[in-house]
Write a structure and sequence with these properties.
Blueprint (H helix, E strand, L loop, with lengths): L22 H17 L3 H17 L3 H18 L2 H17 L3 H18 L2 H18 L2 H18 L2 H17 L3 H18 L2 H19 L2 H18 L2 H17 L3 H17 L3 H17 L4 H18 L2 H13 L7
Helix pairs in contact: 1-2, 2-3, 2-4, 3-4, 4-5, 4-6, 5-6, 6-7, 6-8, 7-8, 8-9, 8-10, 9-10, 10-11, 10-12, 11-12, 12-13, 12-14, 13-14, 14-15, 14-16, 15-16
Length: 344
Amino acid sequence: MYGKAFAPEYQGALTTLSVNSSLTDVLVAGTEELRAAERTGRHGEAARSGLAVAEAHRRLGQIGEADRAWKASFRAARAAGDTGAMAWALWSGGTLARQRGEFPLARRLLQLAADLGERGGDVVVRGYSLAGLAETGRIQGDYEAVARLHEQLLAEARRRGEARHTVWALEGIAQIHRNTGSYDTAFALFEEAAEIAARAEDRRGHAWALRGLADIVSVRDGDTERALELLSQAEQTCRTMKLSSALAYNHKMRGNVLYRAGRYAEARDLYEQALAEFRAMSEPRGEALSRLGLAKSRARLGRDRAETAAELTELARTLDRIGLRHAREMVARAQQELDTEVVR
């Protein structure tokens, strides 16, 4: 049903790149082609190769470079009159904005990308942009609003036999079920995503699916060692492909697994590592979740109760400001779990 996964963001002269290409290799090839296109005045090719450069920088956690690259790609696409390339550049910019916690900007750019994709007849960039909008809502915890869109995009991806997009949609729906307590459904969806990703050779999608399975195995089954084994498998892929953000989330999840097992000192160390990684790439959501895990671990290790209460209150304010509803609810549960008093 599904063919081999491909990376539609690698375009023009870069279509030979694999979905599993190391991001450092993508960056080198993309930069070389971009410079050549700029020297010869080929605006369309500059836009297409610039997109790959922007995405490589983003996934490597190089935020400033990614921001400059997607904007340059958009300008080149506009100069070439290439509606599809303009849409792809906006998709990249919207995805970067979501990664930085700038959710209103992310929604605006992704909606523009979807509109341009539809106008230009590019169903792939339209689908990716709508998927970005769905993921933005899911990350913020607005499950009711985006669950139907996730299901719609899954149906479209299945119909076209697009393995990578099918895997993404399955993982998004699985995460909604996991966060609302439907662990068995979430596990089945993550498992299907892992199977499709493995058959389609989508190593990035497979790594994220393994992370989801590890979470369920830990929280539902209490099987710490199996969860850690799954995370180790995923980490190997993250390191091979230089997936900085995915690796940081892997470390944060490892901290979650160890915390649930009562191994608080080990969890603290993993949360500290993940926090440093997220701060290095300016990713506020990951940073906030790592801070929460770190605060809980330190509390279990004997930290002063008032200090813990003050930190959780400050973190709650940060999450309210960013607009992360689900993470904000996690802080409220932590306050109850640790029996802290909210400092007002």
